[in-house]
Write a structure and sequence with these properties.
By secondary structure, this protein is α+β, with helices and mostly antiparallel strands. The protein has five helices and five strands; from the N terminus they run E-H-H-E-E-E-H-E-H-H. It has a single domain, classed as Aminopeptidase, CATH 3.40.630. It starts with a strand and ends with a helix.
Length: about 160
């Protein structure tokens, strides 16, 4: 079977939405999925896209995706790519699709003169951690992610 990686188009919204739901199920976070598909379409494919998506196909059938966006390294003085989500359907794992998606992202980072490609992984996700390490990725253990969302974000925006 042929593995193909291509940029997503608006017509890919249904499989993208399903990949997000499937990833959330896998990560035990389905209760946190709240997106509205029309809003998601606007944010991905509208006049000001906030993220990009690659679709991974096997034999012409979407079997995975990578959703990413640019960040910026002040120390490097260059942009980077942040991989928000990478998901391959269970039946397609082991096909090389995940590696192909990451390889294409790395190529985009090089083409776009980015300093790095970064992502987060849940600490219990040993299969993913082994996979990423096998590709030469390293954990950034000295960093801790912080988040303000919901009421805390609104309070902060109001001067909280």
């Amino acid at each position: 079977m042929t593995v193909t990686i291509r940029p997503a188009a608006r017509a890919d919204l249904p499989p993208i939405a399903q990949f997000i739901r499937d990833l959330a199920d896998y990560e035990r976070l389905a209760h946190e999925v709240r997106f509205d598909e029309a809003v998601l379409a606007e944010k991905l494919f509208g006049p000001r896209p906030y993220a990009e998506v690659l679709i991974g196909e096997i034999g012409g059938v979407p079997q995975g995706f990578a959703l990413f966006f640019h960040n910026f390294s002040t120390f490097e003085g260059k942009p980077g790519i942040y991989l928000e989500d990478l998901f391959v359907r269970p039946e397609a794992r082991g096909s090389g699709l995940g590696k192909a998606l990451l390889k294409r992202l790395a190529a985009l980072a090089v083409e776009r003169d980015c300093a790095r490609l970064e992502w987060s992984v849940l600490d219990w996700n040993e299969p993913a951690i082994r996979f990423y390490k096998s590709l030469g990725a390293k954990a950034m253990d000295e960093w801790t992610v912080y988040r303000a969302d919901g009421a805390a974000l609104i309070d902060l925006a109001r001067g909280g």
